[in-house]
Amino acid sequence: VGDSVVSKGRETLERCIKLIESHPSWNARVVYGDTDSVFVLLKGRSKEEAFNLGEEMAKAVTLDNPKPVKLKFEKVRKFPIIEIILQN
């Protein structure tokens, strides 16, 4: 059972990374991803743009996953990195 949970978590994370990095207008790069969080680099974006994109990414990844997987946008860091937290 434990291996199945880890495997599904890895699948979900990989799908999340692929979606974020392949979106044509986001121009985003995932710099860190783990079972419950993703850090995204948004080079050259303002704080406001990063907030808007973070919300948009969280919604898109949530829609791409089965319930009860839901992403929650957390915050914009001083550096142009946003953190999205996976919540089950």
UniProtKB/TrEMBL annotation:
EC number: 2.7.7.7
Translocase recorded as keyword: no
Enzyme class, first EC level, given as a word: transferase
GO molecular function, one term: DNA-directed DNA polymerase activity
Signal peptide: none
Domain of life, per lineage: Eukaryota
Domain DNA-directed DNA polymerase family B multifunctional: 3-76
GO BP annotation list: double-strand break repair via homologous recombination; error-prone translesion synthesis
GO cellular component term, pick one: zeta DNA polymerase complex
SUPFAM superfamilies noted in UniProt: DNA/RNA polymerases
Entries under InterPro entries matching the protein: DNA-dir_DNA_pol_B_CS, DNA-dir_DNA_pol_B_multi_dom, DNA/RNA_pol_sf, DNA_pol_palm_dom_sf, PolZ_Rev3
Keywords attached to this entry: DNA-directed DNA polymerase, Nucleotidyltransferase, Transferase
PANTHER family linked to this entry: DNA POLYMERASE ZETA CATALYTIC SUBUNIT
Protein name stated in the entry: DNA-directed DNA polymerase
Organism: Caligus rogercresseyi (Sea louse)
